[in-house]
Amino acid sequence: MAAKKKASxxxxxxxxxxxxxxxAGRLVAVILLTVLLAAVGCGIYYAIETxxxxxxxxxxxxxxxxxxxxxxxxxxxxxxxxxxxxxxxAAGAGKYTVRIQANSEAKFTFQADGNPQSFSHxxxxxxxxxxxxxxxxxxxNIPSDYSVSAVLSEKYGGETVTLPDELPKDTDFWxxxxxxxxxxxxxxxxxxxxxxxxxxxxxxxxx
Length: 207
Description:
five-stranded antiparallel sheet, four-stranded mixed sheet
């Protein structure tokens, strides 16, 4: 009998050892899963709080996504709508800024009330373009009588501006700088189309 009990005890010992190892393995798995979920949760919270996801913001014009340095954009006289797109729509639109300045690459001189001036030193001309900003879009409103000289005249307080006989060809005279909430800046090099703006007002067509 004693021999049978010893044999039974010997068989039971490995089974208990296996059960302990199995329980320890499950415990380790639970701990690792908890740590993993906590890390993912912290990552999501950090990204939301630091506006991390909005690094995917971009600017769209007429259905076209604009690059960080977009050249050759032609705006129309009248209303031009730019949209701020984000891969984080649930958080709402972030704050952004819009400013327009003369393109210093267009190197020519002109006169303002008889005084020589350099176009490359004109600087900011945002006010002329009638920018209206809302939460997720902005408008650039260009007067129907737009001209380079009209912009410069306003910049110099209404003084008479005289341009050279020929301006640089194939040059975007203006740069629009859009500062997004993720810290990225979109530069839009643009000019204004020479084509007249047409609006329909039945029964008349207005040019």
